[in-house]
Amino acid sequence: MGDISIQAIAWLIIAIAFAALVVFLIILLVKVSKIVEEANRTVKLVSSDVDVLLHQADGLMAKANVLLDDVNGKVATIEPLFVAVAELSESVTAVNKSSRDMVERFSRKTGNVGRSASTLVLAKTANKFLKKKKKVEDK
Question: What's this model's pTM, rounded to 2 decimal places?
């Protein structure tokens, strides 16, 4: 009979351990279930937010494309102006070089007389400019 009671106690310990394991697994499964539910809610929320963001990004890209087309059109319109200014700059540079060359040749031929003549022309031009400026100021 002593063997039966020890055997019964062993089965009782096994049954209690199994019941504790089942309770632990139930608690674990309830917590995992809550975590999965929260993850599902988070995924739905993120999914709806991503949809809104994608819609806004599409609108932003469309506006950026319109703006870029507008800028490209304006640049194409202004480009001939820059070309004309560059050509004018080259022309002015060529005229200045020609003028310097001409004055230099004239100075070599006439010596000091050429420098005096250049100074006289410069003085007359400055005098005319100052007279015009004074007339404008008097009005």
Answer: 0.40
Kindly give the interhelix angle for 112-138 and 2-110, rounded to the nearest 10 degrees.
Answer: 110
Distance, CA of 50 to CA of 37 (rounded, Å): 20
pLDDT for residue 40? 95
Contact between 94 and 102 (Cβ < 8 Å): no
Instruction: Read off the amino acid at residue 60.
Output: L
pLDDT in tens, 60-88: 999 999 999 999 888 888 888 888 888 88
How many other CB atoms are found less than 10 A from the CB of residue 85? Answer: 10
Do residues 31 and 24 make contact, with C-beta atoms less than 8 angstroms apart?
no
